[in-house]
UniProtKB/TrEMBL annotation:
This is Class I SAM-dependent methyltransferase. SUPFAM superfamilies: S-adenosyl-L-methionine-dependent methyltransferases (SSF53335). Keywords: Methyltransferase, Transferase. The keyword Mitochondrion does not apply. It comes from Methylobacterium brachiatum. One of its GO terms (molecular function) is methyltransferase activity. InterPro entries: Methyltransf_25 (IPR041698), SAM-dependent_MTases_sf (IPR029063). Its EC number is 2.1.-.-.
Length: 290
């Protein structure tokens, strides 16, 4: 590719990045009371109108917050790649804003489970017992699950204390403290015979060996008829999106699992009702313990 062609590509990609930032800025204006120069606000409106036909006016406040979290997460992740290429291939985010953005984005997992549970009585039954949330981070999934299912009690595990500090503060600010407990603990060392009805494993954050050990631990933690749900990144169909998704995963120290391989892992541990439920950005592979 010639230098001129590279420059054209970079200009196009730069416009895409600035467009994403413009959408994020417009979402902030929807959510926060901000003094913005009138001409800037007008031009910002023009950019969003060009990028999002129909604009953002139909989004409610919850949708505004979720969309802003997605924008923030993408931009912060991009900056982390640019500035921290030499860092070890592990998930180790320190920036509170990025941690909170990832937590907000993770809530989509609970919404996906709610839709699936409405069509699966056995899964719906599991949503009223005890839920083990592995890799709880700032507690996004735990808080969303507590809000979604009033009878559910949640234990959140994580090995990253900076995230757990934020998780505790997030729970303290809401009404669900009596139903959520956080522990600084590695899932590969988990040995709690409490009888969980639902366990969640975010596979992209674990190595292949660690994920297999975690599956063994979570299987033992489940009571009969309990569900184990494994989250996988769903690579976009286009080559660029797929390559970026794989890069993101390995930078987090994860393993690129195929859905069929995770199904085999569950089957080898005696699970039934195994299925893959496609979604973006997370696909769920789940099974019921016999």
């Amino acid at each position: 590719m010639t230098f001129q062609a590279v420059e054209r590509t970079l200009r196009q990609m730069g416009d895409a990045a600035r467009g994403l930032a413009a959408i994020g800025a417009a979402l902030r204006l929807r959510r926060e009371a901000m003094e913005v120069p009138p001409e800037v606000a007008r031009r910002l409106h023009d950019v969003v109108a060009a990028l999002v036909p129909g604009g953002l006016g139909e989004l409610d406040q919850a949708q505004v917050s979720a969309s802003l979290a997605s924008v923030t997460h993408a931009l912060q992740e991009a900056r982390d790649l640019l500035d921290g290429l030499e860092r070890p291939a592990v998930w180790q985010v320190r920036d509170p804003a990025m941690l909170q953005a990832q937590g907000q984005a993770s809530r989509v997992v609970v919404r996906h489970l709610a839709v699936l549970g409405a069509e699966r009585p056995a899964l719906a039954a599991a949503l009223s017992g005890r839920f083990l949330d592995v890799g709880t981070g700032v507690g996004g999934i735990a808080l969303e699950a507590a809000a979604q299912w009033p009878a559910l009690h949640i234990v959140g595990l994580d090995i990253w204390e900076p995230a757990l500090e934020l998780a505790r503060a997030n729970v303290a600010a809401g009404p669900f403290g009596s139903r959520i407990d956080f522990r600084l603990q590695d899932v590969t060392q988990f040995d709690d015979p409490a009888g969980y009805s639902l366990t969640w494993l975010p596979a992209p954050f674990l190595s292949e060996d660690a994920a297999r050990t975690a599956l063994d631990r979570l299987t033992s933690a489940l009571k009969p008829e309990g569900y184990l749900v494994v989250g996988l990144y769903a690579p976009p169909p286009d080559p660029v999106g797929a390559a970026l998704a794989a890069l993101r995963l390995v930078r987090n120290g994860g393993h690129l699992w195929a859905c069929a391989d995770v199904e085999d892992e569950l089957r080898s541990r005696g699970f039934t009702a195994i299925e893959t439920c496609a979604g973006q950005p997370v696909t769920l592979v789940m099974g019921r313990r016999a």
